[in-house]
Design brief:
With 338 residues, this protein is mostly helical. The protein is 79% helix and 0% strand. It is built from twelve helices and no strands. The protein is globular. It comes from Porites lobata. InterPro entries: GPCR_Rhodpsn, GPCR_Rhodpsn_7TM, TAAR. Belongs to the G-protein coupled receptor 1 family. Keywords: Cell membrane, G-protein coupled receptor, Membrane, Receptor, Transducer, Transmembrane, Transmembrane helix.
């Protein structure tokens, strides 16, 4: 600790950290709103939304813990606070990515295997994979304590063994917590969009003389396409905002001097952009989804859920068992009879 005199008294920046505090309040407010809507509106409690609410809880932790830890670390440079903030930062990165992966895989099964969806995606399995994401995210963040010395947090004096562990950890994290899930999700979205596009074309051809029937059967597929677009945008936002975190972490572990020339302002901008994902996510997956947007509108009107809204939204759960086989199955009797 003989290098204490080389550290500044504080990294606190009045403008940057004030905006971080405002962002923290906004993140807490918007995610609490999403969670409260899910709890109070029974028709929102679907399998897909259960995954999204788990992500909302993860995003809520960004505002409750992640950003405040970052601000306190900048202000006081306490070793314990800064180390805890770094671990939470990693936890947020892993948790968000794997929650988005779960949503993608759930939608993939729903679109590609509609007749098997009910048997594959069950509530116990859903709860199990959600719990697995939380446990794995905690493990991925806390495992660093096995070789890192918290008291040496601000200094780069690491033993060769610590360097080897650090390099291996960042390689594993970059591959299995970012690039590989991103590739899997990109492939899944391409497959799903192709299937939905083909189904829309088939229905258009089958019902070209039955405009009413055409519109009724096309609506569920159009809704699903809208949802896929929202989730794909959410994935793109996450990749753009967090790519710098994984790249800089990997470079810092492999070539410690490669990122030292970057300005503090650039690092602060990257931090702000990454934390902003927790604020953007609810608008993408909740307020742009039809069921959540209807719930929000009913909340704004303060007159509760309209019967028509309840019926149309609640039918989403029945849609999986009654109409998905008709509208998305390539081996539907409707297609053969036509």
């Amino acid at each position: 600790m003989e290098n204490n005199d080389t550290l500044p008294d504080s990294y606190f920046d009045a403008v940057f950290d004030s905006f971080l505090i405002l962002l923290s309040v906004a993140v807490i407010a918007v995610n609490l709103l999403v969670i409260s809507l899910f709890v109070c509106r029974e028709y929102l409690q679907t399998k897909t939304n259960s995954l999204l609410i788990s992500l909302a809880v993860s995003d809520l932790l960004v505002g409750l813990v992640g950003i405040p830890m970052n601000v306190i670390c900048n202000a006081f440079l306490g070793v314990g606070v800064c180390m805890a903030g770094a671990l939470i930062y990693r936890f947020i990165a892993v948790s968000t990515m794997y929650h988005i992966l779960l949503v993608t895989l759930e939608r993939y099964i729903y679109v590609m295997y509609p007749m098997k969806y009910i048997n594959i995606v069950t509530v116990p399995r859903l709860l199990m994979v959600i719990a697995s994401v939380w446990i794995f995210s905690l493990f991925a963040a806390l495992i660093q304590l096995a070789w890192l010395d918290p008291s040496n947090f601000f200094y780069q004096t690491k033993t060769p063994e610590e360097i080897r562990f650090d390099v291996g950890y960042h390689i594993f994290g970059s591959v299995f917590c970012f690039f590989l899930p991103a590739i899997i999700m990109a492939y899944s979205y391409v497959r799903m969009f192709l299937v939905i596009h083909r189904q829309i074309k088939e229905i258009r051809g089958l019902y070209n003389t039955r405009s009413a029937g055409h519109a009724n059967q096309k609506a569920p597929i159009a809704t699903e396409a809208r949802a896929l677009c929202i989730f794909a945008i959410m994935l793109t936002v996450f990749i753009i905002c967090w790519l710098s975190f994984y790249v800089s972490g990997f470079l810092f572990a492999v070539l410690p001097g490669s990122v030292l020339g970057l300005s503090d302002e650039l690092f602060m901008a990257f931090d702000y952009i990454r934390f902003s994902v927790a604020f953007v996510n609810p608008f993408l997956y909740a307020f742009l989804k039809r069921d959540f947007s209807r719930a929000l509108k009913s909340l704004c009107r303060r007159d509760g859920v309209q019967p028509g809204e309840l019926a149309s939204t609640a039918s989403g759960s029945r849609f999986r068992t009654l109409t998905i086989n008709f509208s998305l199955s390539r081996s539907s009797d409707m297609y053969r009879d036509a």
